[in-house]
Design brief:
three-stranded parallel sheet; three-stranded antiparallel sheet; single chain; Rossmann fold; 17% strand; 12 strands
Amino acid sequence: MYIGRFAPSPTGPLHFGSLLAAMGSYLDARKQGGLWLLRIEDIDPPREQPGASDNILRTLEHYGFEWDREILYQSQHHEAYRDALQTLSNSGKLYECICSRKQISDANKNNSVTSVYPGTCRERQGEHHDRPYSVRIRIDTETVTFNDLIQGHYGQNLIKEVGDFNLLRRDGFFSYHLAVVVDDALQGITRVMRGHDLLDSTPRQIYLQQQLSLPTPEYAHLPIAINAMGQKLSKQTFAKAIGSDNTGKTLWQALSFLGQQPPEILSKAPVQEIWQWASTHWDLKNVPRQTEIFYKEQ
């Protein structure tokens, strides 16, 4: 069975960029006669906004989204993440790291990619248990490649472009990569459709799936919406929340951005009628391969 998902982080209200990811994953699941699950990725409390989760749910309901099964909250799945860490630790894949971001950046000052971890703490185990540390996974596979259903073939040299990456942060919070891999497997996700900004995260997640003997879903990365300054719409760039007015027009715009060519008259139709048209006419092959699309916020 086809199982897709939408997994927003409660760092603020839904904006147009979020709507694109939600709509793409939703329509793809419905066209395939599959399930569409909703997951709230609330594992980073310092970045979360009070009430954002409820606001996201109300907005999705207002725009006519209907999800299957119970909502999964990552904040309730810490035990599953700890079990995954233990599995990796038992196989000798993990080690503790006390390096700061500045130290990593300084070590890469002569490299084009300043965030690659240089392996400083790989062989220093047992020397710094009295200091805050993160937990990293050893990378022993040079290149991970996959075929993205929208972007085509994509590969990444994990050793040269990423290095050993964090699974548990110094502040004690689990990393996005660990949580998303564990939960995608737990929910039986068969296709992950999300924004292009997460494309370069996929090789790391596939590597984790391999190390944990978990299935690898199909991936499809949608173009992201950017503002006039070329910035991705997000809380950090002060993206406006999609409102409750002009719901039909907003859905019509999202369909247009995703290359589905909805008739203009549909922009004034009831929400239910828009979804009926969209579910019937959705075609993944029409989604533009470009990575970014300019959106003028109203």
